[in-house]
Write a structure and sequence with these properties.
Layout (H helix, E strand, L loop, with lengths): L3 E4 L3 H11 L6 E4 L17 E2 L6 H16 L1 E2 L2 E2 L1 E2 L3 E5 L2 H17 L4 E3 L1 H7 L10 E5 L3 E3 L1 H14 L3 E3 L4 E7 L2 E7 L2 E4 L2 E4 L5 H8 L6 E10 L17 E4 L4 E6 L2 E6 L5 E2 L19 E2 L3 H14 L8 E11 L6 E4 L6 E5 L6 H14 L21 H13 L23 H6 L2 E6 L2 E7 L17 H4 L5 H11 L2 E4 L4 E6 L3 H8 L10 E8 L5 E11 L2 E6 L2 H9 L8 E4 L4 E7 L3 H5 L17 E6 L2 E6 L8 E7 L3 H12 L5 E3 L1 H10 L34 H9 L4 E8 L11 E4 L2 E12 L4 E9 L8 E6 L2 E8 L14
Parallel strand pairs: 1-2, 1-15, 2-11, 7-17, 15-24, 27-37
Antiparallel strand pairs: 3-10, 4-5, 6-10, 7-9, 8-9, 12-13, 13-14, 16-19, 16-20, 16-22, 17-18, 18-19, 21-22, 23-24, 25-26, 27-33, 28-31, 28-32, 29-30, 30-31, 33-36, 34-35, 35-36, 38-41, 38-43, 39-40, 39-42, 40-41, 42-43
The structure holds flavin-adenine dinucleotide.
Length: 814
């Protein structure tokens, strides 16, 4: 039995010990610096509000599992979870409007929810001034979790299966040897281990330093206060609360009952980062009860108290009787940190997890450790999702503070971070600015979404789709003009942020054959579209593999997670070298029917269809610039991706730009790109398909070559190939050409939620919106009538045969 040490007996450590031992792990030791089970971390004083609905499907699934599990638990007859319901009120028209979007998220992910009017809000919370609210979102299954009790109940279950929980053991070092973790050192001796999981909550960065692993997490204070007893609040102490949890997000506040008092939490105050050095040692003689409770800074709470009184006027007769600044974890994107470190095999993180998501996240980590995969896709929580530039202390601090500010904000799905920017730029950045680029951000990169210089190309029909203010954000009719110009002429796309790797060495071919689904053993100079599956046959990602020579490949991947996944599987004998080349190189996509007219005069190489066929790769010259050219196209047009080193990137851009003048070439942005890729049915890994889906239901069976020999996920994929899929990634178009949707909306079949939109964009070619969606297989059949619910309004939609544009591939192969 592998020996597992878990650092921390907060809610996450306790849940994980239970989930692991219930999967047959026997040798599990949980080390806790404080006492058990009110150990002194964030879980010890969390007021335990559980709101399940989240923009992330995974986080909602984690919450649903936590609720189901804690509802079944009790500690000596005392409850661990009670569903008192949740009520989010809207005090502004914007919030009321947004609750209609939020109910859509709830319906997409299977959470019961309804919108209620002001009177109903006041019926649920009689203290509430109904004149101040437009209504609320009521979620009957939300409720209160008792984190310490649920932790102890799970710990007891784990101990009954052999786990050990040791209190007052402070981990002071992580032992390494032979390239992996070997154990931990505590103030009371050493604990050898094959696997160490840090569930140390906001102490995570300190444990990370011991292990040599960066933990991008910022401990921050969040204020929580208790009123004095209030007339009319009279819950029996053992029940604690009867009224729903109340959220007043327009003022960054939440409320719950505590017997005869009310507890108020605030995210309205200034961000208060906490230095770990300033947190008391466990057992230290301080005024505060626990290390994670810092002194209440009353002045920070004053505006929140006034806002609270405004919503609940009866509070005016009461006062803040007690309060504290409680510490917990904030990450650059607000999501947890889960997974095994690539830097130190055997060292895992289970951090930055709320009580709300604790059991679900612990279950995922336990599955991952046991089976190498999780039932719920966790790419958004994977500790390796960050780029190197996103791990600097300055970045983690800036973004962590912003995550705090945004906890209750209405955040648009396309909203880019504002600071720090610009962080990463391609060599063409200044040219793009000169063309009036409107930049969004991804992975730290500045990415043009459209160019104002193309405004003269806008036609009246580009403004035909009536965008509501929400859909109009981060959009311009210029996007439509750029899409059309790509289909009719030629456009330059900056593809520099597309991550690329060089995989080389005598073992490179065998390695890539083993990792991917498609045939990689092709003639030199050939490109293959490929999938990365997990061991259960779920789609982790997609990638293109260009074979450059016998044992050298250029691989374009979707994200850092692919780099991590491939690196983790490299053979130990050193026969394969994997090097990321994204930084230091650049890429321009030249696409459109006139692409050859633009590029051929610049090169002495033969770029004819006969001389340089589709899905081929060659080293050529464009003017003075040596490039690696790949004849591929995500937008579904004739053309090439041209890669070169960053030093000559600007020269490449200028050469192409100059040559394109006579042809009316434009620069085009991500907005057009996204619309064109959906017209062609090209999936976006992580959005359209995840590890929860097999390649066949995702419409990607063509990229799986079951007969090529063994590869990761092959057996599961072979089984999936035999099944008749019950669900499918379907292609919908909205019937009303004037409407648009954004993604993550519920899809109604027969009036009931039966699926959800993964990606959507207005198609200039079709003159209507395309939405890809997971649907029951029948509803994905061409011609099926469904509806996409957008801010509560069902928009009629029809399933279509895909791809919608150029199914014969005539535009690309010429
Ligand atoms: P913790 O509970 O902090 O556990 C980590 C444990 O690791 C600690 O017990 C610590 O002593 C131990 N440890 C650390 N370093 C070492 C070491 N070197 N050696 C040994 N042991 C070590 N979440 C919700 O879902 N709903 C809410 O309503 C809610 N409200 C909150 C209100 C406040 C005021 C605060 C502060 C947080 C709130 N949260 C809420 C967040 C939630 O409390 C935390 O996200 C959650 O409790 C974290 O659990 P954990 O097990 O990861 O961390």
């Amino acid at each position: 039995h592998p020996r597992v040490v878990i650092i921390g007996a907060g809610i996450v450590g306790c849940s994980l010990a239970d989930e692991l031992t219930s999967r047959g792990w026997r040798d599990v030791t949980v080390l806790e610096q404080g006492p058990l089970f009110a150990a002194g971390g964030s879980s010890s004083h969390a007021p335990g509000l559980v709101f399940a609905t989240n923009p992330s499907k995974a986080m909602t699934a984690f919450a649903n599992y936590t609720v189901a599990k804690f509802s079944r638990l009790d500690l000596d007859g005392r409850w661990c979870f009670r569903s008192v319901g949740g009520l989010e009120v809207a005090a502004t028209p914007q919030r009321w409007h947004d609750l209609k979007r939020k109910i859509g998220l709830a319906r997409s992910w299977g959470v019961r929810a309804e919108l209620v009017g002001p009177d109903e809000c006041a019926r649920m919370w009689p203290m509430l001034d109904s004149g101040r609210v437009y209504g609320g979102l009521f979620t009957p299954d939300d409720g209160l979790a008792k984190a310490v009790r649920a932790g102890e109940a799970q710990a007891r279950a784990a101990m009954a299966r052999g786990a050990a929980f040791l209190d007052h053991h402070t981990v002071v070092d992580v032992e390494r040897g032979g390239g992996r973790v070997r154990g931990v050192v505590t103030d009371r001796g050493t604990f050898p281990a094959d696997i160490v999981v840090s569930a140390a909550g906001f102490w995570g960065p300190a444990i990370g330093r011991m292990a040599g692993v960066e933990v991008p997490l910022l401990p921050m204070a969040h204020q929580y206060a208790y009123t004095a007893p209030i007339e009319g609040v009279d819950n029996p102490p053992e029940l604690e609360a009867r009224r729903p949890l109340l959220r007043h997000q327009d003022r960054d506040l939440y409320f719950r009952e505590h017997g005869d008092r009310i507890g108020i939490g605030s995210y309205a105050h200034r961000p208060i980062p906490v230095r770990l050095e300033d947190v008391a040692e466990p057992g230290a003689d301080t005024a505060a009860e626990m290390p994670s409770m810092l002194e209440f800074t009353a002045a920070d709470f004053e505006p929140s108290w006034r806002d609270g009184v405004e919503l609940l006027p009866a509070l005016a007769d009461s006062k803040v009787e007690a309060g504290f600044n409680g510490v917990f974890s904030f990450t650059p994107d607000g999501m947890p940190l889960l997974g095994e470190s690539r830097r130190l095999p055997g060292f895992w993180l289970a951090e930055a997890v709320w009580v709300t998501h604790s059991a679900g996240a612990a279950k995922a980590v336990a599955e991952w450790m046991t089976d190498g995969r999780t039932a719920t896709d966790v790419h958004e929580c994977d500790m390796h999702r960050f780029e190197d530039v996103q791990l600097s202390p300055a970045y983690v601090t800036d973004r962590g503070k912003q995550s705090f500010i945004e906890v209750y904000d209405v955040v648009h799905p396309m909203q880019p971070m504002e600071h720090p920017r610009p962080l990463r730029t391609s060599p063409f950045h200044q040219r793009q600015r000169d063309l009036g680029a409107y930049f969004l951000e991804g992975g730290g990169w500045e990415r043009p979404h459209w160019y104002e210089a193309n405004a003269p190309l806008v036609r009246p029909e580009d403004e035909a789709a009536v965008r509501d203010p929400w859909a109009a954000r981060y959009h311009s009719p210029v996007v439509c003009a750029e899409a059309r110009a790509t289909r009719e002429g030629v456009a330059l796309y900056d593809m520099t942020p597309l991550k690329r790797l060089e995989v080389s060495g005598p073992g490179a071919l065998r390695f890539l054959q083993h990792m991917t689904t498609n045939q990689v053993d092709r003639k030199h100079g050939t490109v293959a579209y490929n999938l990365l599956l997990d061991p259960g046959g779920g789609v982790r990602s997609d990638l293109t593999v260009a074979r450059l020579s016998e044992d050298s490949f250029q691989v374009a991947v979707s994200s850092n997670l692919d780099v991590d996944w491939l690196s983790a599987h490299l053979p130990a004998d050193g026969s394969v070298v994997l090097r990321e080349t994204t930084a230091g190189t650049c890429c321009i996509g030249v696409w459109g029917p006139l692409a050859r007219d633009l590029v051929q005069p610049l090169s002495r190489d033969d770029l004819s269809h006969e001389g340089f066929g589709f899905f081929k790769a060659r080293r050529i010259h464009i003017g003075h610039v040596p490039v690696l050219a790949l004849r591929v196209s995500y937008v579904g047009e004739l053309g090439w991706e041209l890669y070169t080193s960053a030093d000559v990137g600007l020269r490449l851009w200028d050469t192409l730009w100059e040559a394109g003048r006579g042809l009316g070439a434009i620069a085009a942005g991500r907005g057009a790109f996204n619309s064109l890729r959906l017209e062609k049915g090209y999936r976006l890994a992580g959005a359209d398909m995840t590890t929860e889906h097999d390649p066949y239901e995702a419409g990607l069976g063509f990229a799986v070559r079951l007969d090529k020999g063994d590869f990761v996920g092959r057996d599961a994929a072979a089984a999936a190939a035999e099944r008749e899929p019950r669900r499918k990634l379907g292609c919908l178009t909205l019937d009303d050409p004037a409407r648009v949707v954004m993604g993550r909306e519920p899809v109604l079949v027969g009036g009931r939620p039966a699926g959800y939109v993964t990606s959507a964009a207005y198609s200039t070619t079709l003159g209507r919106t395309i939405a890809y969606a997971w649907l029951p297989a029948e509803a994905a059949e061409a011609g099926a009538d469904v509806a996409v619910e957008y801010f509560g309004e069902p928009l009629a939609a029809t399933a279509a045969a895909e791809p919608l544009v150029d199914p014969q591939m005539a535009r690309i192969r010429r």
